[in-house]
Fold this sequence. Notes:
Layout: H1 2-27, E1 30-41, E2 45-56, H2 59-79, E3 87-99, E4 105-119, H3 125-134, E5 139-146, H4 150-172, E6 177-184, E7 189-191, E8 194-195, E9 213-225, H5 234-289
Antiparallel strand pairs: 1-9, 2-4, 2-5, 3-4, 5-8, 6-9, 7-9
Amino acid sequence: MKKLCAVLLVLALAILPILTASTNAFADSKIIVTGEGEICLIPDTAIVSVGVESLNESLIAAQTENSSSMNALVGVLKELGVLEENIKTKGYNVYQRYDYTQGEKLIGYQVSNYLEFKTKDVDNVGSIISKLMENGANRFSGVTFTLENSEEAYKQALSKALENAKNKASALYGGELEIKKIIEENNTSYYLRDSYGYANSISETTKFMKGEIKVSACIKVEFEYEGDTKITSPEHIEEDLDKETGLTDNLLDKDGENKTTDSAATDKSTTDKSTTDKSTTDKSTNKKSA
């Protein structure tokens, strides 16, 4: 009985690591990595803001003058190939102007009107602005270079971010990987370069350095993989249990052989004892006969 208990204890200790390894294989079967992607593109669109400020003692005269100048600017832009849907009013303000040198005296009305337009002719922005100045524009707010299809650029950055995540996961685990979840991070950014100037500093020879636009994307990817441990399924566990059972049978067989050997030795000892007793009896009989 004690030997049987010892065998069962050995069997239990042998199975425990197998079950533990199987559990760990299922529990740690995922990798989470961060993927980053960035692309640099040459801007293909310029957004320009210019304006007209008009001052007159009469409010109506200031508004009329300002409106006339703005209409002229729109006409110039259309002649240069800028579509009307790409021209919009950015701001319109009316102020009262005072002279405070001798108290407070109203000297007139100032009307400020700004428009914003978008053009694909990014290499000739300076020339376009110069023509607008010649036709009544007296304020220049700035130019921004950008991409017409920024969404497509962002998709390319996302694609690079995913490839980056795959490479990181492969470096951590060389086997087969399956994507289970992708989370888009909020720190996606567009790096746009702006150029600014003033009305009296713009000429046909003015060049704006459009530079490059960097579009970046960041994602978090969860991969699932098959663990390195061989025991990864109930079927494998059953196979190992069968092996352990075979080992137990062998142990029991050896124990059985030992029992047979011990029995044979006992029987032999008993036979020898019987022979000795018989010999002693014979000797006693011979003495009596004598």
